[in-house]
Specification:
By secondary structure, the chain is α/β, with parallel strands linked by helices. It is about 40% helix and about 15% strand. The strands form 3 sheets. A 6-stranded parallel sheet has the order 9-8-7-10-11-12, sandwiched between helices.
Amino acid sequence: MIQLLIDNNEKKWKHQLTVCTPYVFGLEDIQLKYQYTKFININEDTWKAKMSKAARYIINTNIIYVGNYFITQCLKKLGDLNVYDVILNENAPDFLGLIRRTYKGYMIFHGHNDWLVSKKQMDCLKNCNEYWAISHYLKRQADKLGCTVKTEVIYNGIDPEKYRDHLGDQIEDKRIIFGIQPRDFVFIYTGRVVEEKGVLQMIHAFRKAQFNSNVKLLIVGGEFYSSNKISAYLLKCKNEAKGSSNIIFTGYIPSDEMPSIYQCGDVGIAPSLCQEAFGLSVLEMLISGLPVITTMNGAIPEIANQQCAFLFETTDILLFEDNMMKAMKELYENRNLTHIMGMYAKESAIRFTDENYLSRFEELIDKV
């Protein structure tokens, strides 16, 4: 979302932006192309930073919250915060109080997770003027807790052109790498391989369906973003898939390769057991033209409907697995249904384009 914002601001200059970001090697070369964005890079990988982070952890957890290394360095390098008309805090609620100590201007919290579950967290919001939620589900959660801060909904957006079916050789290369034959039918999961995402239940459902070898389940992702660490849960999933050569684990794949990965699939599966704040992987599947087997949890029903998706409750896990299995079999056996739902998927996803996100952003900022 930040990338969309700063890129668009270069094309249609309207704001003078300052972005505080963790530093990684080579970042400065990319940042040089931006005329209207100033970058504050915080290097957290030095020995001094690591020592400071360790000391702060002890103080924060045992004495008083003084802020982590990143935010304290940001505040130090930014200097006088009151030269800024607006501060937009991206999903870091614990930074709000520290910023408000010196900043007298307009502050917006842009929340990307369902983190509002206690009075202490609600008190964090009192430091800002507005709360931007990425779904109506998150807004309802805030309302339930008696949020007194003005709350707006701004949906995430993606560039539909990146996910169009025009990737040709890239798709063929990926299918060869993963051992997918031209006539294979492919179910695809993308995201973190963690318990709350329901990956184990998906594997159970796939195995119950007893598909032939020409039906594949492609599981794309690792324990965490950019990580291929073998966690206990990932190992459990792999053990459950043992003996099934048509269940393929790819490990972590960089985001710029994901459009061609989606085009390798026929059906998307997003079996989330948690309350999704938005459900970006569901949106990516839909915009790629894939019908989706997913859940009713969190904001997912705001993105997907029954024309393009099978949506199931997850309160009864065994029933959920059976429902997934039946949906898999129905979409495999009825290719016409798969095709029609895929067309509706693209239409449904058009509501969540990058252009709509940027338009909504400007609408909300203009109000400020």
